């Protein structure tokens, strides 16, 4: 049983490459981009050149056919510089394209995925609606079949990448009277489809990551753009939730790591009462807690990713160990990440409250991980449901 975090040579190279790119290309722009809440348009093409857009995708789609451990590693290393843009990458590559890869028709996969890998296409995923958040199955967006088209009406809220996406994967009710069994998944090209609008939502955190309110108004899409089986949208949706939760842990981990590294450096440099503040035990206590929480979060996230990589069926969902493990990983990373970022700001004093200092961005971004991809409360519901399952015997 290997319990350390020793990376293979290939994983080490991946980590170093992504972090170096983040420091060289992203870091110099981040303060200004964050201030203006602007998304860097070349982000995905840059990542395409690094070869990290389709980490788990098969080579025939232009991917590198690696695993979810490597995906967490990439998201962590982008998030060491920008948690927000790491989330934008996750929303595109994991929430949208990885789910699309699992469930769309082969000819559509061949059409879309190579462009997702090169960075030409950005993706988004639409589940949440103004009146259907945690209770996603109560969604009201309608898809009505008319000949060889579906007519879509409704709205989606808080959609990451909505305004910049080339491809959207979304869910709509096809037979609302059947409840969760009357929902289907679809995809289309938002930039060229009439009846689609995306309005920017202003946020205080996760700035630079575009978030939109989407309206579908008599939007027509080809009937063949149904993803998965008719009325089987729940299967498509749940097949992506576990890998989403696991990989998005990387966003929180990157911020946690930077908060710790930046705080260690600052505490050694900042002198008060004639001594570096790192000599004060109250500061040392915070640093020790940050370290423990980061290490434990890292174990939760990477062990979940490694467990997922070991499974031939990675769909997870209700009644699987993967459901519990992935919800637990993001619950832990989210809550510890919020605390670590708060401590990092505190160690930086007044400077931590200023936008020039990266800890301020990590702090603002981290709170999202108690909310996005199912809130902490929903994750606790999932974990306890799976623990209380009759067949649950393992302590893992
Ligand atoms: C920046 C950002 C990016 C996002 N990106 C996307 C995206 O790309 N695609 C997408 O589809 N969605 C996205 N979301 C939406 C996100 O997944 C939802 O915000 C989240 O699922 C919660 O839904 P809600 O905001 O409607 O809160 P609600 O469901 O209204 O919850 C409000 C509060 O009630 C609690 N609550 C609800 N039900 C229960 C219960 N049964 N028991 C106990 N407590 C409960 C919640 O935990 C929460 O604290 C994003 C959100 C944000 C803020």
Describe the fold and architecture:
Helices cover 50% and strands 14% of the residues. By secondary structure, it is of the alpha+beta class. The protein folds into three domains: 114 residues, Butyryl-Coa Dehydrogenase, subunit A, domain 1 (Orthogonal Bundle), CATH 1.10.540; 103 residues, Beta Barrel (Butyryl-CoA Dehydrogenase, subunit A, domain 2); 155 residues, Butyryl-CoA Dehydrogenase, subunit A, domain 3. The strands form three sheets. Strands 1-4-5-8 form a four-stranded mixed sheet. It starts with 8 loop residues before the first helix and ends in a 9-residue tail after the last helix. Bound molecules: flavin-adenine dinucleotide. Flavin-adenine dinucleotide (FAD) binds next to strand 1, strand 3 and helix 10.
Describe the secondary-structure layout.
Layout: H1 9-36, H2 43-50, H3 68-79, H4 83-103, H5 106-118, E1 123-126, E2 142-146, E3 149-160, E4 167-173, E5 183-188, E6 196-200, E7 211-222, E8 226-227, H6 233-269, E9 271-272, E10 275-276, H7 281-310, H8 321-347, H9 358-366, H10 376-387
Parallel strand pairs: 1-4
Antiparallel strand pairs: 2-3, 3-7, 4-5, 5-8, 6-7, 9-10
Helix pairs in contact: 1-3, 3-4, 3-6, 4-5, 4-6, 6-7, 6-8, 6-9, 7-8, 8-9, 8-10
The structure holds flavin-adenine dinucleotide.
Flavin-adenine dinucleotide binds at residues 91, 125-128, 133-134, 158-160, 203, 206, 211, 368, 371-375, 377-378.
